[in-house]
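Sequence only, no structure available. Ideas?
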Amino acid sequence: MIKLLKIEFRKILTYKVFWILIGLYFIFLSAGILMAEFMINNMVDNMNRHLPIPLPHVTIYFFPWVWQNLAFFATIRYILIFPAIIIIILITNEFTFKTIRQNVINGMSKSEFLISKLLLILLISLIMSVLLAIGTFIIGLSHTQVTGWGMVFERIPFILGFFISIFSFQVFAFFFGFMLRNTGLAIALFSLYTFIVEPVVYYFLKSPLVFKNGISPYLPVNSVLRVTEYPAIPVLKTLMGLNLQDSVSLWISCIPLLYCSVMIGMVFLIMNKRDL
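Reply:
I predicted one. Tokens follow.
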């Protein structure tokens, strides 16, 4: 396992595109987190112009709710797309530059090659989860008058929800990368599905013109987004009628992981039958 990770590290250590995309991910994530409260309160101010009783401003950075709020903003599809694109590029480059053949010639089996990519996905997910947890803890401490550590860590399981979301999203990208093997095509189709195809299908299935069903929440990308579906901002319930999420559901968390298992199984099966 350590040997496989070392091989992956050698590949990405001097790969500038990897570090640029990682940097963009953290820039967009930080900007989204820091601007979220301002944007929500701006929305509240606009609503207050038409309400007889004004709604109060909100803060999203206090314990214990900060865990849920930052996990939610970190799992918006426009943020998750960056690590997903990284995985697609790293995988498709193996086919473009024939390095997968060289690895196999040097003694690495196809299964070990796939496992090395999954280990990299797991490690990226763990590192980003730890960094989010540290950042959330610091932000929470700076905005909260702590009265007890139980209150501080009450909603920390939402960090686990973030880990499940970012891991699953990268596995979806892993699937697209290995199935298509072309960087541009894989990124284009993955982005098309994530931002256009599935949202259209989601709202079509929810349409009253379609037979009543509960299929839409179980679509692949939507199943990832549902793990941390709503922030803990009570005013949103007043403004939009949203049902606020109380905890990370075990059942909802298992759905994207089930998709991951199916996709990983398909990749292993097809890779063992396909020529490199």
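Residues 110-143 form the longest helix (34 residues).
Hope that gets you unstuck.
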